[in-house]
Amino acid sequence: MLVVLAWVIGISCALAQSDTVRHDEKDITNPESKYNKELPRDIGPQRDSVRLEGNQIPRKLRRTLNSIDLYRGWEDEGVYLNKNTKLYMLYISTDSLTRKYGFDEQGKVVTFTSFIKP
Which superkingdom heads the taxonomic lineage of this protein's source (predicted)? Predict the structure, then answer.
């Protein structure tokens, strides 16, 4: 009887552990994050992407790119439309880092990846 009581108390204590995971935080992409140690071969524009020129780039997307310093130099890098996903892709390279952004037609960032160059 005493063994059963000890077992029940042990199980109760094990099940009563509090959850330490914080469920109130959102995943927010951080442009300063570095996810991979080396640049993958597929970082550049894909075969299913086409480079856009001038007025082919949606006005709201151009407004976003021009208004945020993070995207400075986007005109030199170019904007690509992925025909499959319908996302507008931007690749910005600095000395040691390449950042890949995906935008919707409204100019909102929907994907982000950052790679350290090998």
Answer: Bacteria
